[in-house]
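Quick note —
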Amino acid sequence: MACQETFLTLHGLKIQLLLAGSGEPLLYLHGVGGEVEWLPFFAQLSRACTLYVPAHPGFRKSEGLEKIDTIEDLVFHYTDLMDHLGLTQPYVVGLSLGGWLAAELATRYSHRIRKLVLIDAVGLRVPGAPIADIFAATPEETRQLLFHDPQSELARRLVPDVPSPQLLENTLRAREATARVGWNPLLCNPKLRERLYRITVPTLVIWGESDRLVPAAHGRAYQEGIAGAKLVVLEHCGHMPPLEKPEETARVVTQFLRA
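Predicted structure written out below.
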């Protein structure tokens, strides 16, 4: 399935968007790594729906970093973007930071979402299970946090010891943008857990069993806090199932969306 990269203007800001597929709309909210490029996972999803993959403000080629200070700012940004794109009730899938954003969006606007998928989402404060500090991690430590096999070709390609200039620029932009919403407290909203009851749409929580960045207790907390939510744990997978297990993750997602 061919992918189209386009740019739209939202309140005077340029926003990068990947678009592919046909059928029901699916809005994908990316993670800390800013995975706004054509991935095998996206190719799989685009066979089942019309896929929208925007870059958050300040990530990749999107402008607007100076407009974002809190996760609430991103929620407002995405309600405006959904209006702009004419997405009245899309599926919403979020990874990591994007999962947190998706959950915050759903606590406020469940009626605007058809189904919700949270993949290794940050966002919660779970006593006894803190999120690791990825901001201070070396490349080797980052691979340990993110991947089931930190020595794999995939892990070393995505998080090399010596990044290319382009990868370094993307990484620095992503970390700066993430820090604006998730520096203190670290990658969470302490009030979110008690608000999960407000999510009233069918919800699937996907977790990599080897996620060392966000402990599995966070996945269980999302499942327990959202009425009727289902939890699927992927074996031999770390924090980024769409990259480490693209076919399996896409299959689990599409089966849930079609049910």
